[in-house]
Amino acid sequence: MADPTYNLNGGFKPTLKRFADLQGPDFFPTPRWATFALVENEKFTGDVWECACGDGAMSRVFEETGTRVISSDLYDRGYGEVGVDFLNPQRSADNIVTNPPYNCAEGFVASGVRHSKHKFALLLRLAFLEGANRASTIFSRTPPSRVWVFSERITFYPKGVDPKGSGTTAYAWFVWDKDAPGSTELKWLKPGYKARFA
Ligand SMILES: C[S@@+](CC[C@H](N)C(=O)[O-])C[C@H]1O[C@@H](n2cnc3c(N)ncnc32)[C@H](O)[C@@H]1O
């Protein structure tokens, strides 16, 4: 599928860091160290489906660790199966992991909780914890099992842009674990991932 960002916004501004791309498909590859921070703290049994895989930045980290990875995206980013809308998926997987588009993160939570057999992990802004609507829906009905807060800031850039400067937004891994339903445990990721897995 063609990427509508380029047409809707009248051209991409390649120097921008991540912004809330409320109309477009929101393509910002995840720095590999941020995925390693999850892999080193959560055990995934079985395969992992990267359901909004972009150019494969996250999928490659799981592949490096010997995990069987299924990769798909709604748009053609040059990696995985194309044209798969995660808001209406036709398959399930042992585990599902991704960094979703800002503009439909809630829909990704609903779909991921439903279609993962063991764990479902989303990289989201820490501020996703806030909000009256989410409090009375996601966090009261299907709260995550663990929230791993990053102690180092992640900076997202559009693909191909030279990383410069540091991020201003706090992020966390939100993990729904079918073997640990119920309340939410708040955990902190130790500093050092950025340097180790740059
Ligand atoms: C912020 S990027 C993250 C890419 C990749 N997960 C990573 O972490 O490097 C979000 C991705 O979601 C994809 N996307 C947007 N809407 C989608 C949908 N409904 N179903 C599947 N993928 C979608 C975009 O094409 C984009 O590649």
Task: Report on the architecture of this protein.
The protein starts with a helix and ends with a helix. The chain has a single domain, classed as Vaccinia Virus protein VP39 (Rossmann fold). Strands 3-2-1-4-5-7-6-8 form an 8-stranded mixed sheet, with helices on both faces. α2 packs across α3 (57-64). β4 (93-98), α4 and β5 (116-125) form a beta-alpha-beta unit. It is of the alpha/beta class and 198 residues long. The chain contains 7 helices and 8 strands, in the order ααβαβββαβααβββα. Helices cover 22% and strands 21% of the residues. Residues 25-30, 51-54, 57-58, 73-75, 77, 85-87, 98-99, 101 line the site of S-adenosylmethionine.
